[in-house]
């Protein structure tokens, strides 16, 4: 398997506060990799840095063989790397269909038409609601829309930031099933989660973050039964 | 002049929604839509001109109409930055003054060089027409340059910070206009005494044409993918960036477009009143324009145009009670903000083509309760033109 994303010794800080202190990890093509950890561990910061929303202090990020450090977000995503940001940031005043179209902003209309059908097969709920204004969708639907929008750019790597946040357990299950489906359809996935149980159960590999550094790494199944991880994140 | 405005309720037409839902619906092809609007604009123009020539509209009234046009351009241009981009700049009068001085000085200097008399501007020769068009473009460009200079640092900030920084910049512009003569050592703006002897080149025809063109340009810009990017930034900047929108570029673009049209309006204003003083372009002027946009509904071009019309004509009509004008202003604002915080029209925009399409499809509002504001807007639209 070829390495798709390679992060080496990444340091990121907000002013004087060091959020990420030397993280290194790899993602191979076709994998689901998850970063788990408590609040403030630096998970979202890592994702946002890879996406180009934040500039790192030092370290390298290589995507598909080319460095993307310092490349602005709107250019990073053209290379095939899409971020579905934390907290369901949909365009609240646009309709569902318009939101999805914005996702394909860098693609041609013909491509978008095709991708839209694919997105609708993954998210039939979005097709039903396509003319509804996004701000009036439920939390779960907004999460689906944010994911669908990210998919519209036809990413090779989809980065999901806390897709389960604030959702009912049944919806969390649904979202994770879809993530699994997307992966089986060929999209590599980098998943950041606080819901470690769920994340580990679908991930090929996982990294455990603690205060800006990687504490542990292993396959999803290994970490799911690891004593330290169980104590810290899975409630014993 | 409102016919030009045909932006849809949400100014983006989604091809996804359209393709999926409405295969059998009759629609007007784009050339027909534009033709209908062009014909109506011309009609209003001809009627207006005839009324002025025939004496049904007095000279005073036509001057007021010209000012209405100037304020419409100011309001719809500020609406780009507030309504569409979602920022709150408080320095629109600054851009207006840059444009006003730029245009007036250009026209006066060029007239001097070419030996065109002030009288020629009122009668209008091909040369003066070219000069005035050139002057308006120069005014717009000067304002756009000011917009870039202010926009690049200011747009890094948001909300109240942006409001304060633009306010400060507008004040700087005003003070520069006031004192630049003594710095330069020759007469450019005329300082506090003002710039006098500006030829009265603004006419109903010119102002009307500018309003129509500006509305058309803004409308097409907002319908394009550039407009969509601007609206996405308003809705959610991080999501816009993550979907591939170059947010810095589009924020600056919207801000500069807003400044450019304000500069043009300033140029028209200069030709309308003939004298420019820095004091005209103080903080209150910016607030006045902002009030028009907020009152009409942020993001609604028709709303901006309507409230600009009403708020320009009203003080003129109430000249006898002018001391109470600001009180009335304040009360109206308070009432609107309490009862209609989204502005009179919200983000609704009038679309003649949409109404015609509804008629073509026998899809009337009284059949299924769907689009109530359409009628209300239609009624107001007529009054705005007269």
Task: Spell out the key features of this protein.
heterodimer, A: 236 residues, six-stranded mixed beta sheet, four-stranded antiparallel beta sheet, globular, B: 386 residues, mainly alpha, ABC transporter involved in vitamin B12 uptake, BtuC, 71% helix, 0% strand, disordered C terminus
Could you please describe the fold and organization of this structure?
- The complex is a heterodimer of chains A (236) and B (386).
- Chain A is an alpha/beta fold.
- In chain A, the strands form 2 sheets. In chain A, strands 6-7-8-3-9-10 form a 6-stranded mixed β-sheet, with helices on both faces. In chain A, strands 2-1-4-5 form a 4-stranded antiparallel β-sheet, with helices on one face.
- The termini of chain A are far apart.
- Chain B is mainly alpha-helical.
- Classes of the chains: A alpha/beta (236), B mainly alpha (386).
- The interface between A and B is medium-sized, with 38 and 28 residues.
Quickly count the helices of chain A. 10
**What's the rounded overall pLDDT mean of chain B?**
83
Shape of chain A: globular
List segments of chain B where confidence is low: pLDDT < 50 over at least 5 consecutive residues: 1-23, 369-386
What is the distance, rounded to the nearest whole angstrom, between the alpha carbons of the first and last residues of chain B? 9 Å
Spans of chain A of at least 5 consecutive residues whose pLDDT stays below 50 are none
Q: From the structure provided, what is the oligomeric state, counting identical versus distinct chains?
A: heterodimer
- What's the main sheet of chain B like? none
Structural class of chain B: mainly alpha
